[in-house]
Write a structure and sequence with these properties.
Number of domains: 1
Number of helices: 3
Strand order of the largest sheet: 1-2-3
Helix content: 25-40%
Distance between the termini: 58 Å
Strand content: 15-25%
Structural class: alpha+beta
CATH superfamily: Fe-S cluster assembly (FSCA)
Shape: globular
CATH class: Alpha Beta
Largest sheet: 3 strands, mixed
Length: about 110
Amino acid sequence: MSEEKALWTDQEIEDTKKQVMEALETVIDPELGIDIVNLGLVYEVNIYDEGFCEVKITLTTMGCPLADVITEDILNAIKPIPKIKETQVKLVWYPAWDPSRMSRYARIALGIR
């Protein structure tokens, strides 16, 4: 029985994940004017050997009418990354988002203490 050999090293996966996170910082929430990373909307990014990227995000409210816009912006932001062949955005609601997930930068920009 032969073992499957990983196509990418752990370092390559981490480097690609870092590129994805940097790309996600360019995706701006249209209502708040802050990027989705600093807002704490990105819950998880997974990179797989085949160049598949899975991004798990949430939104500030369940009925957010801009979910499709944000998803499309995410796909467009990640598209230029050479190692990523396909991206899937998964919308999750648990744990529920709250302002404590925001970075210091986002809090200052929004005037929240």
